[in-house]
Design a protein that fits this description.
The chain has 127 residues and is mostly helical. The chain has one domain. Helix content is 74%, strand content 0%. It contains six helices and no strands. The N and C termini lie far apart (60 Å).
């Protein structure tokens, strides 16, 4: 591969990484806010009445749900076309950020207020 082609392909890859990061991040924020809306506001008084084992079970079930959401998103995002796919032989699907939903997972967890409050409440009760 000549130097010019190598530089162009690497430049396209950098654009693709930014493209994928933006898609995963926006989806993570959006779906986190949807989950918060579904769960409603965190009610500390209601949580105080629950035994610790029940809170743990609810958190585990919610993690299970989160895992399923991550799986679905990870399988849908690679289907979104990248405008420069095929240019100079560049293959969008081979970029690791496309098939790994790391950025989605980070933003999805970070922006879920209800889930974070529930974990903090449990940790406070365990002290």
């Amino acid at each position: 591969m000549n130097l010019k082609k190598e530089i162009i392909v690497r430049g396209i890859k950098l654009l693709d990484i930014g493209y994928i990061t933006a898609i995963y991040s926006l989806l993570g924020i959006f779906l986190a806010k949807v989950c918060d809306k579904i769960n409603g506001p965190f009610d500390k008084e209601k949580e105080d009445k629950k035994p610790i084992w029940r809170i743990l079970v609810e958190l585990i079930l919610y993690l299970w749900f989160i895992g399923i959401v991550i799986y679905i998103v990870r399988n849908i995002v690679p289907l979104i076309p990248f405008p420069l796919d095929g240019v100079y032989g560049f293959k969008h699907i081979l970029v690791k950020e496309v098939i790994h939903a790391t950025m989605f997972s980070i933003t999805f967890f970070y922006f879920q207020t209800y889930y974070k409050n529930k974990i903090e409440h449990l940790l406070h009760r365990l002290q």
